[in-house]
Amino acid sequence: SQQGEEDPQALSIQEGENATMNCSYKTSINNLQWYRQNSGRGLVHLILIRSNEREKHSGRLRVTLDTSKKSSSLLITASRAADTASYFCATAGSSNTGKLIFGQGTTLQVKP
Amino acid sequence: DADVTQTPRNRITKTGKRIMLECSQTKGHDRMYWYRQDPGLGLRLIYYSFDVKDINKGEISDGYSVSRQAQAKFSLSLESAIPNQTALYFCATSDSHTWDTQYFGPGTRLTVL
User: Fold this and answer.
1) DSSP-based helix, strand, coil % in chain A, nearest 5
2) With an 8 Å Cβ cutoff, are B90 and A45 in contact?
3) Which of B42, B94, B104 sits opposite A103 (nearest CB)?
4) pLDDT band (50, 70, 90) for residue A3
5) Comparing C-alpha atoms, which of A47, A38, A58, A16 is closest to residue A108?
6) What are the backbone angles phi and psi of residue A93, rounded to the nearest 5°?
7) What is the pLDDT of residues A8-48, one digit of tens each?
8) HSE-CB for B100 with a 13 A CA cutoff
9) A79-89: string of b/e by CB count within 10 Å (b at 16+)?
10) What kind and span of H or E run contains A92?
11) Helix (H, G, I), strand (E, B) or coil at A2
């Protein structure tokens, strides 16, 4: 079964606006990662946040993690048409088995 | 050149045929994975391998088998393909020393008629 549930499933915004995607998970984690997938292509790693971290930044990306609520959010600021893609969260379990469990993804459309 | 390559990129086959999907990597990573992606279901893990002699079943291994021929090569086989194995298949790699960030190949689109 899927570990992560993402919300919303689809999001459509105008260029320049911010986009926020949320991810909830069920079990204890070692880290949580966000990936981007352009249509029909492989996933690309965006950012990793460890279970003892609360917030992390990378360029226009901001990720937060609330382990008490078992949730994470990905914020993309000043979105661009090139940000149009699907975004997936993935969790690595606390036992660090090396496996990731992926959520179902949020499809983001950024209109020019 | 891409670090993780998959062949073929597209394949159409018939029910009952044996199919092999191949994955090669030049990243020097010890861990390799096979996933399938279906619309609305995210990625599901089929098999994973932490080194040449360590192969493990994932969430949905029934109907699939794998072979880790070398550290750089990991193949996925469908012994007798069926239509519900129509999906997008991804290979991924990771280095056990770097918090398991995974690097994905471009995918193979498989259609079973």
Assistant:
1) 5, 60, 40
2) no
3) B42
4) low
5) A38
6) -65, 160
7) 999 999 999 999 999 999 989 999 999 999 987 899 999 99
8) 25
9) beeebbbbbbb
10) strand A85-93
11) coil
